[in-house]
Design goal:
disordered N terminus; BirA Bifunctional Protein, domain 2; 3-stranded mixed beta sheet
């Protein structure tokens, strides 16, 4: 049984066609990280071979930490949650309930073969979706992630970006803090940045459900795809 079949047997999937015949999938139950990684790797290979559609997959994970290819073991401050090594770029990140994770598996051979441009397009997509939810966010040169200002004027991180590209097919993607338990971030130095706090939409006074943010992502997806075509 493939990883996708395993997931589908336990998780209700909402699928629809997006621009350029991309599968848009929303998992309504938490997906274990090893299962998600196996599905991403399987789908990446299938997209390379032209055997399956590209995929944008929105999901939640149970509480866990991931370690990117540049991770520093000294930045893992707690073993409270499982830690998974991953092939994406970046350092340590937290994933958990109340956080929308988006995995983006697209074939850049069909589009602009531009790694930096793709990362910037993902950033711009998340920022546009946040704007639909009345949050002004931005990317900051030299600092990984998506940033905004808290009500007291402090700069804080609301989203993370981590990408891997294998034979010009992308993997991994982004995470946005809707209403996670922010204390869970204390077990790591998020993305190696200790000078700034992590925030969430709820902490900023925007109380929405994951499904509402999904709608904002869907509404702004055409602009994202146009930017990389």
């Amino acid at each position: 049984m493939t990883p996708l079949a395993t997931a589908a047997s336990r998780v209700h999937e909402i699928s629809m066609n997006l621009l350029n015949d991309i599968e848009w999938r929303v998992s309504t139950q938490q997906i274990a990280y090893p299962e998600a990684l196996a599905e991403m790797e399987s789908r990446n290979a299938a997209v390379q071979a032209g055997e399956q559609k590209e995929l944008i997959w929105l999901l939640e994970h149970p509480p866990l930490y991931t370690a990117g290819t540049s991770s520093d073991p000294t930045e893992l401050l707690s073993q409270e949650f499982p830690v998974f090594e991953t092939g994406r770029g970046g350092r340590h990140t937290y994933h958990g309930p109340g956080q929308r994770v988006g995995y983006v598996i697209l074939n850049l051979k069909k589009r602009k073969s531009d790694v930096r441009g793709f990362v910037h397009a993902v950033e711009a997509w998340v920022i546009a979706a946040l704007a639909e939810c009345r949050i002004t966010a931005r990317a900051v040169d030299g600092r990984v992630g998506i940033w905004c200002d808290t009500p007291d004027g402090q700069e804080a991180k609301i989203g993370a970006i981590g990408i891997r590209i294998r034979k010009w097919v992308t993997m991994h993607g982004f995470s946005v803090n809707i209403d996670p338990d922010l204390s869970h971030f204390a077990g790591i130095i998020p993305c190696g940045i200790s000078e700034y706090p992590v925030t969430s939409m709820k902490q900023l006074g925007i109380a929405i459900k994951l499904q509402e943010f999904d709608e904002a992502l869907y509404k702004t997806a055409d602009a994202f795809l146009s930017a990389i075509d």
